[in-house]
Design brief:
6 strands; about 130 residues; 6-stranded mixed sheet; Nuclear Transport Factor 2, Chain: A
């Protein structure tokens, strides 16, 4: 199975369906995420993140995952996501409106385990935009 297919199916199981067992399947124990000027680490962070985003956007859907580049141990992708924002997220109160956002992710693998990611997301911007519309 191609890494891109493995990644997409794993993310659908984890993010859309809330199957937290996928954290152990997809991610290394040493997982490290870089988002802006912050770093996040480990399985507890990932499980907490999935719970938070699924609580705030329970019908979250990964509409499109496009692979932009691939090498021996890295995959760069753009993901387009949608869902209805039903509870507070990142300190932003629920808008009760549909939100759509993009994420750009560079994923580093060791075998089929994700060990490190660099993430850029416009979710907070889109939530503020719809809240203030």
């Amino acid at each position: 199975m191609e890494r891109s297919d493995y990644l997409k199916e794993g993310l659908v199981q984890l993010i859309e369906k809330g199957n937290n067992v996928m954290v152990d399947e997809l991610f290394s124990i040493e997982y490290l995420a870089h988002a802006g000027d912050k770093d996040y680490q480990g399985h507890p962070f990932l499980k907490r993140y999935v719970r938070q985003i699924r609580k705030a956007i329970p019908d979250i859907r990964i509409k499109k995952l496009e692979v932009l580049s691939q090498s021996e141990d890295r995959l760069t992708s753009q993901c387009f996501n949608t869902g209805i924002h039903l509870s507070s997220l990142m300190g932003i109160p629920a808008s009760k409106k549909r939100v759509a956002w993009y994420e750009m992710v560079v994923t580093r693998f060791e075998g089929y385990k994700i060990v490190e990611e660099w993430i850029v997301s416009d979710l907070a911007f889109q939530l503020m935009r719809i809240l203030n519309a």
